[in-house]
Design brief:
transmembrane helix; 20% strand; three-stranded mixed sheet; alpha+beta; transmembrane; sodium; ion channel; five-stranded antiparallel sheet
Amino acid sequence: MAVELMRSLHWNTTFPAVSVCQVLNDETMADLLESIKCIALSHERHTIIRSEKDILNCCREMGLDRDYRMDNVMSDIAFYGGTCYSCEYCTTGQLQCPANLSLITEVYRLRCTALMSDCSWQGRPFDCCQFFHPLETEFGTCYSINSQNSKPKAATKLINNRYTGPGALRFKVKEDLQVYLHDEHSVPYAYVDRALKETVLWGMNKEIIFKVIELENNDNVHDISIKRRDCRFPWEFPENSLHLYNSYSFSSCAVECFIQTQIELCNCTHHLMPKSIKPLKICDYKGLTCLTEKSAELAKQRKQCPCLSSCVEPEYFVVYSSDR
């Protein structure tokens, strides 16, 4: 599969950030559940595997002889998307579930090298994972190029102008991915413009062509109060911000508001959320059950979050998106 992102320009400008996030593929998950067997449980319990008997005891729960309802739990935790109906097996004692939800995610989510390959910029190949860096999002760890919020943040920007011609970024996907286009200060989140995200399945050939309108602020804009100009610059964080990211943007504010809404309704935030500089309670299975029960209320409240727009956020318009 190849993705091509292009735009026509007459001056130096920064190519947008492109973020890729793994989505649940049942076949991949089934293979991992069979091959990993008891790794997650043994790490959780610090089990020392010394004999065939130890392996058999461990794999009865997470391996070949496991209760297959546990597969649903592992999928719902690793790719948590706002509901976890299988968590009821854990909260009611029907299953003895591993308590470390972050570890489950770490075991069953793939790294950058297993997600993509054959990257090139303007026809010049580069090592994908040297430039696509980890980015914490509400969907878990994604990988982003040209982002100021990734870890580490982009050291070199992809630039195009009248001399280089329209920017062209290509890469192949090795798993099913959600691909997001956004500016360098923004992050993927649940209510991103649908036109700026694409689900790209393994085997697809996807081409995206877009144009951009950039904002240019007068130098005096910085001197106008935030309340009056009704926007924030990337370095202007709200008071009591959790500082989830290096830069302020409407999307980063929306993610932070989502965390606060989860805490307000269920006294915890789910395990895939970005880490805050302030200690926050991470939901256990009971907490995820609460978030599931209140998912409709959460969705309603987060749409009402009082987030200001960014003063520097450009507008992206998809001109063409192939359907192959």
